[in-house]
Amino acid sequence: MATSVTAPPEDAPRTDPSRRGWRRLPVVHQLRQSVGLQRGMLVAGLMLTGLFLLTALFAPLLAPYGHAQLRDADGPFGAQQPPSAEHWLGTTVGGYDVLSRVVHGSRTAILVILVAIVLSLFAGVLLGLVSGYFGGWLDRVLVVVCDAVYAFPSLLLAIVMAIVISGGQSSLFGGILAAAISITVVFIPQYFRVVRAETVRIKNEAFVESARVVGAGHWRIMTRHVLRNATRTLPLILTLNASEAILTLAGLGFLGFGIEPTAAAEWGYDLNAALSDVTSGIWWTSIFPGLAIVLVVLGLTLVGESLNDLADPRLRSRRAAGSADTAETPVVPGGALDAGPGGLDGIEETHR
Amino acid sequence: MTTAATELAAGDPAQEDAPAARSRRGSGGLGSYVLVRFLLIIPTVFILVTTVFFLMRSTGDPITAALGGRLTAEELAQRVSEAGYDRPLFVQYLEYLGNVFTGDFGTTLSDRRPVTEVLTTFGTATLELAVYALVVAFAVGIPLGRLAAYARDRWPDAVLRVFAILCYATPVFFAGLVLKLVFASGLGWLPVAGRASTRAEIELQFLDDPTGIYLVDALRLGDSEVVLDVLEHAVLPAVALGLLTAGVFLRLVRTNVIGTLGTGYVEAARSRGVAERRLLRKHAYRPALIPIITVIGLQVALLMGGAVLTETTFEWKGLGFQLAQYLQARDFVAVQGIVALLAVIVAVTNFVVDVIAALIDPRVRY
C-alpha cells in the first residue's frame, strides 16, 4: 500500500519538463550517462569538489580559530605543538593553528580560481574568437605569441607576473588578484587556441554563410553563430584549469610569492614554512595543507577527466578507433598543465 | 625501419596512403622541415625575452627594487644612472637585446656575478636533476602504462589510473616533503637535502676541470664512496620530480597501447594465432612509444618549472634553487637572465624533439 502511494509522485515528474531540464544539466546528465569505474571516478570527484566548496563556504564556522590567530583566552598557542585536543592538527612554526589555516586556505584557493578563470575565459575567448574569425596578420601574430607563451614553463611566467603585479608581497585582495592574474596569463593561450580552432572551423559552415547573406553583422555572427558552437570543449578545460590554478597558486606561495600569512591562509605558504620542520621530523605542519591541495586537485581532475571521457563522443570514438596519439594528449592532466602545442593540436586535428 | 613505418601507417587508418605520397619527396622533406622548425625558434625566443624584459621593467628599475629601502634617494639615483637605467626604456631594451644576442645576460645585483657564469655553474646541476627525473619517469611510467593497458578495465588498471592522477595532483614540493619525512627524517635511509655530503663535495672540488655533473665527476674521481654518496642524494629529488612526468607517461602509454591493440595488423596477427602476450610485447607496444617522444618536448617545460620547486625543497643547488634565492633577494637582473635562458632551453629542446620525432615518424613532416 505504501509503495502504491509513493510511486506516482516519483513517476509523475519524469514527464514534467522542468525535471527533464534538470536531468540535462551538464554534470547531472553525465552522471546518469556514466557506468562502472567511470561513474565511480566521477562520483568521487564530485564528492571531493563538493567537500571543498562547502569547506570554503562555511570556513568561519568550521575553523576553530582565525587564520592569523596566535593566542586565545588561555594565552599563546605555542609553536610546533603536536596535535592535541585544543589543536586537532597541531600548530605551525609561526604559532598558527594548522586546522584553521587549512580550512581558511580553501577560501583563498576558491577566490583565486574564480578570478583566474573568469579573467582568462573572457580574454582567451575574445581573442580566440576575433583572431579566428578575422584571420590576417593579427591572427598570425597572436598565434605565434600564444605558442611562445604556451611552450614556456607556466610557473616561471606566473612568477614574473607576480613580481610585476605586486612586487612579490601582498595584502589579501592584492595577493589574490596578483596570483589570479599570474595564472590568467598562463591560461589565456589555452582558451585562445581552443576557441580559435573551433572558430576557424565553424566560420566556413553553411549557416554562417547564410547569416552573412541575410546581412548579419560581424559581431552578431561572432557571438550568435560562432561562439555558441565553439564553447563545447570549454567545460573540460575549465575543470582542468581550476586544478592547475590551485597548483600554480601553491607553487607561487611555496616560493614566497603568494599571500602574506597575516592577510589570508594559503596552503603553499604553509608548506614553505613547514620545509624546515620536516628535517626534525615534525609532520603535521606539512602533511595537512599538502593533503588539502592533493584532495582538491584530485577531485577537480577526476571531474574534468570524467566529463571529458563522457561528454565528447569524438574523443571517445577516436580512442576506440585506435589513433589515440593525438586524441589523448589534451586530456592528459600533466600534459594539460603545460600541454604545449601538441596538446591542443590534438583538438584542432580532430576538427579537420 | 621499413617494418616500423608500415606498422605506423597501419596504426592510423586515416594515414594509410600517406607514406607512399611522402616518399616521393624523399629526404628533401625532412631537410626543409628541420629548417623551418629551426627558424621558428627565433621568434619564440625573441617574444619570450621581449615579454620578460618589458614585464620585469614595468615595475621600475632593478636597482631601486633590490636596494630601495637601504640607500638614500641621492645614492639610489646615482647608482641608477651609473647602470644606465635612467635612459629611455626602449634604448635599454635594444642594448639588452644586443647583449643577449652576444651571450651577455647582464651582471647580478646581489652578488655581482655575470649571469652567464651563474647559468653555467648551476645549469649543470639542474640538467643532472632533470635527467634523473626523466629516468625515473621512464622506468615507472612506461612499464606501468603497459600493464594498465594489458589489464584494461580490471582492477590493476583502475589502481594505476588513480595513481597517475595522483602523480599529477600532488605538487612536486609536497611529494618531496613527504618523501623526506618518510625516507630521510623518518627511516633515515637517505640524506635530507643537498647534492652530496660535505666530505664528498670537498673531494669533488679537488678534481681539476670538473663538469659540474656530480655523478660524472664522482665516477672520474673513482671513489666508490663518493659515487654512492652522490647517488643517495639524488634519489629523493629524482623521484619527487620524476613521478610528475611518470603519471603523464603512464597514461599516454596506456591509451596508445589500447589503441594499437585494436588496430587491423594486431587483429591480423591475432587471427594467425599469435599469443596475446606476444601481441602486446611485439606488435602493440613499440609503435605506442612513438608519441612519448613528442610529449618529452612538452615535459621539458614542465620539468623546468618543477625543478624550481624540487630544488628549493631539497636545497639542490641548481638554477631553480638559485632563481628562488634571487627572487628573495629581489635581484631581478638575475631572475630575468635565468628565465630568458630557460626559455631558450625549452625552445631548443622542443626543436630537437620535433626533429627526432620527424626522423622516426615520417607523418610528422607535413
TrEMBL record, chain A:
Alphabetized UniProt keyword annotations: Cell membrane, Membrane, Transmembrane, Transmembrane helix, Transport
Matching SUPFAM superfamilies: MetI-like
Membrane-related topology note: Multi-pass membrane protein
Domain of life the protein comes from: Bacteria
CDD domains the record matches: TM_PBP2
Originating species: Geodermatophilus siccatus
Record's GO cellular component terms: plasma membrane
Subcellular localization, as worded in the UniProt entry: Cell membrane
Name of the molecule in the record: Peptide/nickel transport system permease protein
Alphabetized InterPro entries for the sequence: BP-dependent_transpt_permease, MetI-like, MetI-like_sf
Lyase keyword on record: no
UniProt lineage: Bacteria, Bacillati, Actinomycetota, Actinomycetes, Geodermatophilales
Location (main, coarse): membrane
GO biological process: transmembrane transport
Pfam families (alphabetical): BPD_transp_1
Renumbered residue ranges of the record's region Disordered: 1-20, 321-352
Transmembrane segment boundaries: 41-63, 109-134, 141-165, 171-192, 234-259, 282-304
From TrEMBL, chain B:
Transmembrane domains' residue ranges: 34-56, 129-150, 162-183, 234-253, 288-309, 333-360
Keyword annotations from UniProtKB, A to Z: Cell membrane, Membrane, Transmembrane, Transmembrane helix, Transport
Biological process (GO), any one: transmembrane transport
Family annotation (PROSITE patterns): ABC_TM1
GO cellular component, one term: plasma membrane
Ranges for region Disordered: 1-26
Signal peptide as annotated in the record: none
Record's protein name: Peptide/nickel transport system permease protein
Family affiliation: Belongs to the binding-protein-dependent transport system permease family.
Bilayer topology annotation: Multi-pass membrane protein
Source organism, top-level taxon: Bacteria
Domain ABC transmembrane type-1 as annotated: residue spans: 123-357
Keyword hit for 4Fe-4S: no
Localisation: Cell membrane
Lineage summary: Bacteria, Bacillati, Actinomycetota, Actinomycetes, Geodermatophilales
